[in-house]
Design brief:
Number of strands: 0
Helix content: 40-55%
Low-confidence stretches: 10-18
CATH topology: Cytochrome Bc1 Complex, Chain D, domain 2
Strand content: under 5%
Number of domains: 1
Shape: globular
CATH class: Mainly Alpha
Number of helices: 6
Largest sheet: none
Structural class: mainly alpha
Bound molecules: heme C
CATH architecture: Orthogonal Bundle
Length: about 110
């Protein structure tokens, strides 16, 4: 029975379709990858809220590649006013390239 409930959400996520336009829950992949230690959807934790990230890069064609690179290599300076200069840690190769892409696609999809 449990499988019947879980499968559709997993399938949607795999297809890159955001189901989170007004959700405040992190997807399982974000929990599994450790992102939730510092990020939430709708508020700052250590890093900026992902809805704010999504809003900032809305309509920016280069955002996906830039954010994938940032999650892979880490970095700071884009959210200093929010984080007081705390850096985003590097996640490659701890998290696979495919999963990083899926996470960034999810984040950019939050604000539609
Ligand atoms: C140790 C805390 C921490 C963890 C864990 C963390 N982040 Fe971050 N993240 C940050 C901070 C701090 C920033 C702001 C960096 C800056 O100012 O440029 C950030 C920024 C970001 C940004 C915006 C980057 C930009 O340049 O605008 C994205 C996207 C992001 N994180 C995704 C992720 C993903 C995906 C994960 C999990 C794989 C993750 N983060 C895990 C702290 C964290």
């Amino acid at each position: 029975m449990k499988k019947l409930v879980l499968l559709p959400a997993a399938a949607l996520l795999a297809m890159g379709i955001s189901t989170a336009s007004n959700a405040t829950d992190m997807p399982p992949i974000a929990k599994k990858s450790g992102c939730t230690a510092c990020h939430a959807i709708d508020k700052k934790v250590v890093g900026p809220g992902w809805a704010a990230v999504s809003t900032r890069y809305k309509g920016d064609a280069g955002a996906k590649a830039a954010l994938v690179a940032k999650v892979k290599k880490g970095g700071k300076g884009n959210w200093t006013e929010v984080t007081k200069g705390v850096p985003m840690p590097p996640y490659s190769p701890r998290v696979s390239d495919a999963n990083i892409e899926e996470l960034v696609t999810f984040i950019l999809g939050i604000s539609g």
